[in-house]
Amino acid sequence: MKSPAELTVLFRAQGLKVTPQRQAIFSALHGNEEHPTADAVYETVSALMPTISLRTVYQTLNDLASMGELAHVRLGTGSARFDPNLDPHHHLVCDGCGSVVDLAADFTDVRVPDGDIHGFAVRSTEIVFRGLCPACRESAPDTPSTTAIHH
Ligand SMILES: [Zn+2]
Ligand SMILES: [Zn+2]
Predict the structure, then answer these.
(1) When you count CB atoms within 10 A of the terminal residue's CB, does the N or C end of the chain come out lower?
(2) Strand spans (E) along the chain
C-alpha cells in the first residue's frame, strides 16, 4: 500500500476529499500486518480521533479497495478483512482467535490439471492454511486444530 502522503495525493487527484480523519485511517493501515476488520480500524483511529465515525472508516476502506490500494480479503474469520499488502501472498489463519498472518511462499506445484478447469481462466492462486497460532496452542495444548468456530 502507498504511504499516507502518496494516498493523499491520489485521493485529491480523484477529486476525493482528504480530511484529517482519512489521513489517520491511511496511517493506521500503512504497514499494518494484522489484516484488520473495519471495526478494528475504527477502534485504532477513534482512540486518536474520537470524532471519527464508523461510516467514514467504511467509506474510506471501500474507496481504497476500489482504487486497488487495499485488498479486501475474506478468510472465514467472520468479518471481511483489509490487507494493505498488495504483493501476491498466502495466509495462515488461526481457528482459535482468528488472527491472520501473511505467508510469502512460492507454491510452484499448485496447478489445475489441464482440461479440468471448468472454463475458468485462472488469474491467481491463494492458499489458506488453517490451524492454531502460538498463543492459542499455548492456551489449549490438547485441542486439535479442528476447534469448532461458530459464526
Ligand atoms: Zn490464535
Ligand atoms: Zn495478507
Answers:
(1) C
(2) 71-73, 81-83, 90-94, 100-103, 128-131
